[in-house]
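> forwarded from #structure-qc
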């Protein structure tokens, strides 16, 4: 019985997915021992087999993606993302192939058409994609370029001395991610045509991507053309199975890219036609000035000196695979040449505007060419500043941040087969660029600062003075910050004596009022809530920092006191988290002078403490201009009405007249904040429960920079023209 029971339990254990835990009595022990060893061995083997089935991973589980399948499975690896940015990247890939033809001297015009059916067409007048058969694959050049990832005319064949990358990589990726792509090539007096569906060659029975499709390889001749006419037309429909529903092309980004290319390739014409709506928009881009003109276009602020142009060449050795006569890829050491062309220009601002390119392909994330530029320029500037006596012996060297402050630079390199970090081509990875660009920058700047030409010498002095002043300002503001930090009561004594500080240190609550006129201190101090509201009175109109230099701004008592009280530094060293107050509120009189003072304060905050504005922490108070005392009826006490402009006052009095109400004459007009008593000021301007504040914001930084320079800069003529001709709603001037 015991033997039978043991055998039954073992059979149950074998068949069950889970092991049974049991114990047999001592009486069954002998029977269990009597089971054959083979039976126990069978049990162990079956259990192991069950575990192997559950965790099986064999060669048959591996997926082999052939052709362009990998692109469709993982599109982000090739175009970065499947949103609008990836959609734009596909367009750049096609355009860049056309631009490469222009760099080789074979293309003068590129047309970019955005069609109403969602397709995009790029047409160039270059040589056209080769239409003869490639010997290794037996396919035509068009089909090879459009269907093979690593195929094209830039792998050491000598067809292109400089290109944006490896020709065919980008085109084949775009083909894979398109529901339909048509290619037309004008070459040899014939028009060659071929279509693809999601990377597969074939024929569509109609227009658009929804037409019936039959896969078929081969290039077809569909017409004749003059033998003098050559070029390529690529028209594609992005595959909405791949891209997000809300992904769309940004016309402004296309304009910017076309404009940028026209600067980088002088003599090339780019035409952008937006046919997506009933009203067709067309823009043409053509520039002869090159990157010097581009540098002037990019600069957002008032210039310091003229454009500095640096150029040169360098050689390096690189091991690359090269096709031999038999069609095999052989690793070969080749001698390369790299051309460097750089345009520099400094301005009075603090932002660094840098654009870098490799064979006109933008590298927004920099790379080795930018590293070489930044490493070299700081050392040369220090040497030149000390040689000229602008940087004193006892002063510390300028740092990279000082040199880059206010700098607008366009850095371009031209080379054969650039090595990018990823297919998106955002970072150059060729290590030789660090040394070559560094040497070109070093030699070029040394020659510029040591020149005997009068104009260049004066320009160089202005640049060096600007950079050294930036260094001095950085050191001075750091010292200021150390004094400004309010960690205890003793430290607060270093703040200006006229500051009426608040008790709270909670940045989420505290407010700093910059008040026009020291005479208004008494009233505003009595009207405020001393728990969280601080008052800093200002004497008269502060310095116009748009016209003044850095040293003049720091020497100005009112500007220095504002920077000191806010406590976050200024310029490049400004740190938003260090600001002592959550809101900065400009409070001035409700007249023309008050508007002028607000404009001067705003110029200071924008120029030296812009993160405050970007964070939405700068406000303008709205004090009333009139107080109307309405007379009550029957001995009752009347009410007070406040108006904020002459037009509003006229409207209010007209409404009161219609209602049969009278008011005390003359109507009180506030000439300034000092004429208001504390209760009136608190009720109308300072009490968070009743006041109205205007938040200062900036939507377009570049446009704001240009407007500040126009209205507050040194040039009188443009400002006069603007005031006399501009179509301005006067009611919104101070809005």
């Amino acid at each position: 019985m015991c033997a039978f029971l043991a055998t039954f339990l073992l059979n149950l254990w074998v068949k069950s997915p889970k092991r049974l835990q049991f114990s047999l009595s001592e009486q069954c022990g002998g029977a269990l021992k009597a089971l054959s060893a083979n039976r126990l061995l069978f049990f162990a083997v079956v259990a192991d087999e069950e575990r192997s089935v559950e965790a099986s991973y064999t060669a048959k589980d591996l997926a082999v993606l052939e052709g362009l399948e990998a692109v469709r499975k993982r599109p982000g690896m090739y175009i970065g993302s499947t949103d609008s940015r990836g959609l734009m990247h596909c367009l750049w890939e096609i355009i860049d192939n056309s631009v490469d033809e222009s760099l080789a001297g074979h293309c003068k015009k590129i047309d970019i058409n955005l069609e109403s059916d969602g397709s995009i067409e790029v047409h160039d007048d270059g040589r056209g994609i080769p239409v003869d058969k490639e010997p290794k694959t037996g396919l035509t050049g068009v089909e090879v370029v459009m269907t093979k990832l690593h195929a094209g005319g830039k792998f050491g064949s000598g067809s292109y001395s400089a290109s944006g990358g490896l020709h065919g990589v980008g085109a084949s990726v775009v083909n894979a991610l398109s529901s339909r792509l048509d290619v037309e090539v004008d070459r040899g007096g014939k028009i060659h045509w071929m279509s693809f569906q999601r990377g597969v060659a074939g024929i569509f029975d109609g227009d658009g991507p929804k037409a019936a499709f039959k896969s078929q390889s081969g290039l077809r001749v569909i017409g004749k053309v003059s033998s003098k006419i050559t070029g390529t037309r690529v028209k594609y429909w992005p595959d909405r199975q791949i891209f997000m529903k809300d992904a769309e092309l940004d016309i402004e980004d296309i304009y910017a890219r076309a404009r940028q290319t026209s600067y980088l390739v002088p003599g090339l014409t780019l035409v952008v036609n937006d046919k997506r709506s009933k009203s067709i928009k067309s823009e043409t881009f053509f520039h002869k000035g090159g990157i010097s003109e581009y540098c002037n276009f990019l600069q957002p602020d008032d210039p310091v000196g003229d454009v500095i142009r640096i150029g040169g060449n360098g050689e390096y050795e690189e091991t690359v695979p090269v096709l031999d006569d038999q069609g095999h890829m052989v690793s070969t050491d080749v001698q390369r040449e790299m051309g460097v062309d750089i345009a520099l220009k400094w301005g009075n601002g603090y932002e660094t505007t840098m654009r870098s390119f490799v064979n006109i392909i933008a590298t927004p994330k920099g790379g080795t060419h930018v590293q070489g530029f930044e490493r070299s320029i700081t050392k040369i500037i220090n040497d030149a500043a000390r040689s000229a006596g602008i940087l004193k012996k006892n002063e510390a060297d300028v740092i990279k941040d000082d040199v880059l402050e206010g700098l607008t630079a366009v850095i371009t390199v031209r080379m054969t087969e650039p090595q990018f970090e990823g297919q998106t081509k955002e970072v150059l990875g060729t290590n030789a660029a660090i040394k070559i660009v560094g040497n070109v920058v070093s030699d070029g700047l040394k020659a510029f600062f040591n020149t005997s030409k009068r104009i260049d010498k004066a320009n160089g002095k202005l640049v060096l003075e600007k950079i050294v002043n930036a260094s001095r300002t950085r050191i001075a503001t750091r010292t200021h910050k150390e004094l400004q930090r309010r960690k205890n009561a003793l430290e607060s004594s270093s703040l200006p004596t006229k500051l009426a500080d608040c008790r709270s240190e909670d940045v989420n609550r505290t407010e700093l009022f910059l008040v026009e006129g020291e005479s208004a201190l008494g009233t505003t101090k009595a009207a405020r809530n001393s728990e969280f509201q601080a008052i800093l009175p200002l004497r008269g109109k502060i310095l116009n920092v748009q016209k003044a230099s850095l040293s003049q701004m720091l020497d100005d008592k009112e500007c220095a006191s504002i920077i000191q009280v806010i406590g976050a530094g200024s310029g490049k060293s400004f740190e938003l988290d260090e600001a002592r107050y959550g809101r900065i509120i400009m409070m001035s009189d409700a007249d023309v002078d008050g508007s002028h003072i607000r404009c001067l304060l705003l110029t200071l905050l924008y120029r030296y403490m812009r993160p405050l504005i970007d964070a939405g922490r700068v406000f303008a108070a709205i004090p009333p201009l009139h107080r109307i005392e309405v007379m009550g009826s029957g001995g009752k006490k009347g009410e007070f009405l406040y108006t904020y402009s002459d037009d509003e006052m006229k409207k209010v009095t007209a409404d009161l007249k219609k209602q049969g109400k009278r008011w005390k004459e003359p109507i009180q007009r506030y000439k300034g904040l000092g004429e208001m008593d504390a209760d009136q000021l608190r009720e109308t301007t300072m009490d968070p429960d009743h006041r109205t504040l205007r938040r200062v914001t900036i939507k377009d930084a570049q446009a704001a920079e240009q407007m500040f320079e126009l209205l507050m800069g040194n040039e009188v003529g443009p400002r006069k023209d603007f005031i006399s001709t501009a179509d301005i709603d006067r009611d919104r001037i101070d809005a």
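QC bot note: The mean pLDDT is 80. The CA atoms of residues 386 and 392 lie 7 Å apart.
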